[in-house]
Design brief:
The protein has one domain. It has 3 helices and no strands. Helix 1 (about 5-35) packs antiparallel against helix 2. Helices cover about 80% and strands about 0% of the residues. It has about 80 residues and is mostly helical.
Length: about 80
């Protein structure tokens, strides 16, 4: 398998994992404590996307949505 493909896939995996973990974690914290509100949850998603784009965007293109990544791969829109 191509090493570059493994690097890109790993970067997407890390970014998606961070997004889901932090975002869903914020929702769960809000459900338990009602301290974050909708604004806090939205800010959590925004901050984690910003961090993941900065951390792995140069490797993978920063889609962080498996549906988009798979669709681009199937339709051969990746360089």
């Amino acid at each position: 398998m191509n090493r570059d493909l493994i690097r890109r896939s790993s970067a997407e995996l890390v970014g998606t994992f961070g997004l889901v973990t932090a975002g869903c974690g914020a929702i769960m914290v809000n459900a338990q404590t009602e301290a974050l509100t909708h604004v806090g949850i939205a800010l959590t998603f925004g901050f984690i996307i910003t961090v993941m784009i900065a951390a792995t965007g140069h490797i993978s293109g920063a889609h962080f949505n498996p549906a988009v990544t798979i669709a681009f791969a199937v339709t051969r829109h990746f360089p």
